[in-house]
């Protein structure tokens, strides 16, 4: 006998204004391979901002955003092996993939052409996926990860997107070698975690920003070794050819040619921000010195679990501002202005009510 859908409640956007309001909907019943979570916290990502406002032209309304989800397991399907009721679990940017393509077989589900996003996606059964600004969620166990006991959940939630978005390309493009010099462009939700991972790897880390506003924060609080002001021609000239790798986390349009020149010969720059406008790439910046420019988009499930375990081992968490669900629209306005150090996290369990 087929189980009926489960009633759920959250906050969703109904149009491109992006304004979130209470929204009742349903989740599928816990399937044989599923775990059901009570959601405790959910981070707010720039992708949520772009999605609810239909900046990328793919919005499906009503939309419940949120893909930096932590919670506790309240039900498991009969085939589930990884989890039990009561476990602390995280869910990130995706909740499904085809499972049979080359990317999936190599554990890069994030590169699957049929990857299903946690919010604003279409699941295998044709239903819309609703994200973590809600009281509960059902997910195939393959797309959930264990959270180490020593990590505070509210500070761990952003790692499920921001964390793996920088960890995975740093790992796969060799920007994790002790003693190497890493440049981190932008000190926001992604950048501040990249600094922490870089230092945990034993790298020399330089934060690159357009102004000195975050210099003290970068060096004294986050542990960066140096700070480079990209709008200062003298500083940029001095730094040419000094970095082994750069991870660029900026989500606004910005010139990348001066950044590429900071790389040593055969150095690599990885883009993980997603500006709305195309970036300009003078080919000479790559040709000279054999430099490489690549991109990264979250990580596969193997990398996600590995990243969380690495964070647990090194006590790495995101710096967060915890807010209630009724503050979420204000938080999104502040996020759009860059007014957060460094990630908003919604306290779902304690503030989401149906009343």
Tally the beta strands.
17
- Calculate the mean pLDDT score and round it: 96
Helix content: 10-25%
Morphology: globular
What is the radius of gyration? 20 Å
| Cα end-to-end separation | 33 Å
**Helix/strand structural class:** alpha/beta
User: Topology as H/E string?
Assistant: EEEHEEEHEEEHHEHEHEHEHEHEHEHEH
Task: Quote the beta fraction.
Answer: 25-35%
Uncertain runs:
none
| Major sheet details | 7 strands, mixed
- Summed up, the helix count is 12
Which characteristics define this entry?
single chain, 355 residues, alpha/beta, 6-stranded parallel β-sheet, 12 helices, 17 strands, globular
Can you lay out the helices and strands and say which pair or pack?
Layout: E1 6-13, E2 20-27, E3 34-43, H1 46-52, E4 69-76, E5 88-91, E6 94-96, H2 102-105, E7 116-117, E8 136-140, E9 145-146, H3 153-156, H4 162-172, E10 181-185, H5 189-200, E11 204-209, H6 215-221, E12 226-229, H7 233-238, E13 243-248, H8 257-260, E14 263-271, H9 284-287, E15 292-295, H10 301-314, E16 320-323, H11 328-336, E17 343-347, H12 348-351
Parallel strand pairs: 10-11, 10-13, 11-12, 13-14, 14-15, 16-17
Antiparallel strand pairs: 1-2, 3-4, 3-8, 3-17, 4-5, 5-9, 6-7
Helix pairs in contact: 4-5, 4-10
């Amino acid at each position: 006998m087929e189980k009926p859908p489960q009633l759920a409640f959250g906050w969703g956007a109904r149009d491109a204004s992006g304004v979130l309001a209470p929204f009742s909907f349903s989740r599928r019943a816990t399937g044989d391979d599923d775990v059901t979570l009570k959601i405790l916290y959910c981070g707010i990502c720039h992708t949520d901002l772009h999605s609810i406002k239909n900046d990328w032209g793919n919005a499906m309304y009503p939309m419940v955003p949120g893909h930096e989800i932590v919670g506790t397991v309240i039900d498991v399907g009969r085939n589930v092996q990884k989890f039990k009721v009561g476990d602390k679990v995280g869910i990130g940017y995706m909740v499904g993939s085809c499972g049979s393509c080359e990317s999936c077989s190599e554990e890069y589900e994030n590169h699957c052409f049929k990857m299903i996003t946690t919010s604003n996606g279409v699941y295998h059964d044709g239903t819309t996926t609703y994200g973590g600004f809600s009281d509960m969620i059902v997910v195939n166990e393959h797309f959930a990860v264990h959270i180490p006991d020593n990590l505070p959940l509210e500070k761990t939630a952003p790692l499920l997107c921001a964390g793996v978005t920088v960890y995975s390309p740093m790992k796969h493009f060799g920007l994790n070698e002790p003693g190497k010099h890493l440049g981190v462009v932008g000190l926001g939700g992604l950048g501040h975690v990249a600094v922490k991972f870089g230092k945990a790897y034993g790298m020399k880390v330089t934060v690159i920003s357009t102004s000195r506003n975050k210099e003290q924060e970068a060096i004294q609080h986050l542990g960066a070794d140096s700070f480079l002001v990209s709008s200062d021609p003298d500083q940029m000239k001095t730094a040419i050819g000094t970095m082994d790798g750069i991870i660029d986390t900026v989500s606004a349009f910005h010139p990348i040619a001066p950044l590429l020149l900071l790389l040593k010969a055969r150095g690599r720059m990885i883009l993980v921000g997603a500006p709305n406008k195309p970036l300009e790439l003078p080919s000479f910046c790559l040709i000279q010195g054999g430099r490489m420019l690549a991109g990264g988009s979250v990580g596969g499930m193997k990398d996600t679990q590995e990243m969380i375990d690495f964070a647990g081992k090194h006590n790495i968490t995101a710096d967060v501002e915890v807010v209630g669900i009724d503050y979420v629209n204000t938080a999104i306005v502040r996020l759009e202005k860059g007014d957060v150090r460094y990630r908003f996290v919604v306290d779902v369990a304690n503030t989401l009510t149906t009343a």
